[in-house]
Structures are given as structure tokens and as C-alpha cells.
Amino acid sequence: RAKANGRGSFARYDRDMGTEVQERVRLLRNLRNAFQHDRLFLNYQPQIDLSNGRIIGAEALIRWKTESGELVPPDSFIAIAEYSGLIVDIGQWVLRNACFRQISLEKAGFTNFRMAVNVSIAQFRHPQFLDMLEQALADTGINPALLELEITESMAMLEPDYVIGVIHKVKTLGISVAVDDFGTGFSSLSYLQRLAVDRLKIDRGFVNAIRSPAQTTECIAQTVIQLGRNLGLTVIAEGVETETQARLLKQMGCHEAQGYLFAHPLDSSELVRWLEQHRDSGCPLND
Ligand code: C2E
Ligand code: MG
Ligand code: MG
Ligand code: MG
């Protein structure tokens, strides 16, 4: 509401706030509805071993298909799911689905297929998170060594000691942990060491910055790969779009990669078809 002294800018500010809140309320209501009516589903993006082009596994990525058939990208609804707490239920659904998918891939003969699942800090922080994880392992029968949880670096930095504790317990279950969007969250070397994760995922912004051989020595990707290797971690690059990037990443010592160059995120039947096509030969890499 406008102040009594009549400063128009205040009135406008209030009105914009109002519509923004309404927008969020509507988005959350729609999301909740979509979740209840099975309009959320998972896509899977293959991950490749850069040393031999072999397929290691895939990352599960959530999708929302509206009633009108429109696809809403996760970047526009994960934040509100986190803020509202709905991510706890959605995240449990994602985890269980991804584990069941992994099992069905194993049964179809794609053995040792690793499934990576994104986990939000709100899930991590939830008092029943570890029980939920154990339940998912028990109900699906997934080999925990073939399950990986991805937590973003910036989220891990929010509550360092707490996150370190949960990671420790997750690893006790035999599940591995990756730091997602690595390089954007300003974590220190000593913190990384204490985190005791298995894998670093170089943020795709740094991968995108790799453009020509001449720059490789200065690029951040190189620094991140070196850092990961020095800590004895596996390094995976996300958002690899060109053969040049794949070749240079490999030369820089990056172990694994995922990105449009190899495959876009695929729905479950597309994934099976893609895996069948690449079953024997893997993904060709030019050195
Ligand atoms: P992320 O975990 O860092 O996932 C990588 C994102 O990069 C995905 O976007 C993927 O589709 C996209 N991508 C893959 N390859 C390429 C490429 O070559 N070039 C470019 N430009 N992009 C590529 P997506 O699927 O839209 O997901 C966005 C983010 O939403 C994810 O980032 C993740 O943080 C979050 N997210 C997705 N699914 C889940 C989920 O189930 N739970 C939670 N908590 N977050 C999720
Ligand atoms: Mg991820
Ligand atoms: Mg990422
Ligand atoms: Mg991201």
C-alpha cells in the first residue's frame, strides 16, 4: 500500500511483490498437483569414461509435463519445491524411481550401471533422510555402490559441519557422493578434504569456457581437474558439447564426462535404445 506521504514508487513496489507472491503460490499449487497426478518423470543423461568411451551410468534429471503437454524445466520449480519443503517428498520419489530404473537396466543386461541422483540440502537436512535412503535401498534392492548422490557445492557450503556428518553416514551405507556444480561455491581445499566425497563435477560454465587448445593452461577447468586429482577424487565434466572440449578435458586429466556431445537427457525408453546402440562400441572419442 502507498505511504500516506504518497511516494508512488512504494505503491508500485508493493504491487509487484503481491503479484510475485501470487505467482509463486500458483506455481507451488500446480507443482503439488502435478506431483500427485504423476506428471513428474525422470530423464537420464549418460555419463562416459573419457579414457575409453565406455558408458559408466547416467544422471537422473527431473521433468514436469503439464496437462497441456508443456515441459517445465527443473530450474523453474526446484527452488520453490525446496522453499516449501515439497522437495522432501519429490526427492524421495526421484530416488526410488531412479533406483528402480537402475535395477531394470541391470536386468536388461546393462551391468555395473551407476545411477546419479540430485539431492537438495532440504532433503539432506531432513531428520529422516538416512532412514529414507536405507528404505529405498531395501525396497529396490539396488547395489549401493552403484548409487551416487549429487549435492551442489554451494549447498554443501551452507552448513559445512552438518553436511560433512551426513555425507559420512551416506558413505557408511556404501553410497557414493559427488559435489555438483563444482568451482562455483568457493569451498576451501581443507573443507573439500573433510567432505570426503568421491567425485567432483566441474560446473558446465567452466566446460563451456574451453574453446581452443591455446587457452587450456589458463582455464579454470584445468585447475579444478588438478585439484580433484590431487585429492584422489574422480573428476567428471558436465555440459560437454564439442569434440574439442572432450579431447582437451581428457588431455587435462578429466576422467569422465556427460553432455549433449554424447547424449541429451533421455526418457527411459530412449535411454534403453541409446544404450543398446552403444553397448559394444561405447562412445567414439577422437584423440
Ligand atoms: P545439474 O544437476 O547440474 O544438471 C545438469 C544440467 O545440465 C541439466 O539441466 C542438464 O539437462 C543440463 N545439460 C546436460 N548436458 C548439457 C550440455 O551439453 N549443455 C548444456 N547447456 N546443458 C546440459 P536440467 O535437467 O534442466 O536440470 C537443471 C538442474 O536442476 C540440475 O542441474 C539440478 O541441480 C536440478 N535438478 C534436476 N533434477 C533434480 C532432482 O531430481 N532433484 C533436485 N534436487 N534437483 C534436480
Ligand atoms: Mg547434477
Ligand atoms: Mg551440475
Ligand atoms: Mg546445475
TrEMBL record:
GO MF, any single term: cyclic-guanylate-specific phosphodiesterase activity
Keywords: Phosphoprotein
Source species, domain of life: Bacteria
Segment of the intact protein contained: 434 to 720 of 720
Protein name: EAL domain-containing protein
Residue span, EAL domain: 24-279
GO biological process terms, semicolon-separated: phosphorelay signal transduction system
